[in-house]
Design a protein that fits this description.
The protein has 251 residues and is mainly beta. It contains three helices and 14 strands.
Length: 251
């Protein structure tokens, strides 16, 4: 069985050349579906991430990550130009390690996963009270700003130091991305076939070391380590959003 990453929940199936709504996907999901066991793994330079470890980033800064929560949204699988909308939004917490999800998906072959980091406009501006309290977009998620009718996309918090040393780094960083301008899209290639009643194990790695660099830029905590919606410092959240978009890969 080839490995890839693709996920779907009942009630959200869409298949088309341009993406159209299936008026009643339930019979298809009940009678002709497989199960996808998705695991998202936090990594640091390719090795398992541990929140108790002080790491060194590409800028030689000592970093202790103490919280990582984020939305993935508008997740779509593609196959020969067609798209399947798999899930509108899901919330992940990798602070303590990997997170798992189980989803049902229509049988078929797929070649790419596309997803957003954060929430697209319509979901970002939705009211948490319109969802069940324990829904990823509900009141218990802890991801709404509270003072504005928008959602936080990611909570990235911990401690850092710009100098060599030992022990707990002395300075705090806390960046909560959000606002529509922070929404980013990413994609990973897959080569996956799934059959009816089949269960497929799929793994997606998120490398936290890549939060601090990409091919053309870097995220320097010494130049800005705090952001919670302040308009004048939104460049901090935008820079982190750019980095996170490139942190996903298949193992």
């Amino acid at each position: 069985m080839n490995r890839g990453v693709w996920i779907l929940t009942a009630g959200s199936l869409v298949v088309s050349g341009c993406l159209k709504t299936d008026p009643d996907p339930a019979p298809l999901l009940q009678e002709k579906a497989g199960v996808v066991h998705l695991t998202i793994r936090p990594r640091w330079w390719g090795s398992p991430f541990d929140k108790t470890v002080v790491y060194t980033n590409v800028l030689a800064q000592r970093v202790l990550v103490q919280q990582l929560r984020f939305f993935l949204a508008d997740m779509r699988m593609t196959s020969a130009g067609e798209e399947v909308l798999m899930k509108d939004a899901d919330l992940f917490d990798l602070t303590n390690g990997s997170e798992e999800r189980w989803y049902r998906i229509a049988p078929g072959g797929y070649d790419q996963l596309r997803f957003g980091i954060g929430l697209p406009y319509a979901l970002n501006h939705s009211d948490p009270s319109n969802y069940p309290v324990n829904d990823p977009l509900g009141a218990n998620s802890g991801m709404d700003w509270g003072w504005v009718s928008l959602h936080r996309f990611m909570l990235f918090e911990g401690r850092f130091d710009t100098l060599p040393g030992s022990g707990i780094p002395p300075f705090q960083f806390s960046v909560h991305t959000g606002f529509d301008t922070c929404y980013r899209e990413s994609q990973v290639p897959v080569a996956m076939d799934i059959a009816i009643d089949d269960t497929v194990e799929l793994v997606l790695d998120m490398d936290l070391s890549r939060f601090f660099h990409n091919a053309t830029d870097s995220f320097d905590l010494s130049e800005g380590s705090q952001w919670h919606g302040e308009a004048g410092q939104v460049n901090i959240a935008l820079k982190l959003s750019d980095m996170v978009a490139g942190s996903f890969s298949m193992p």
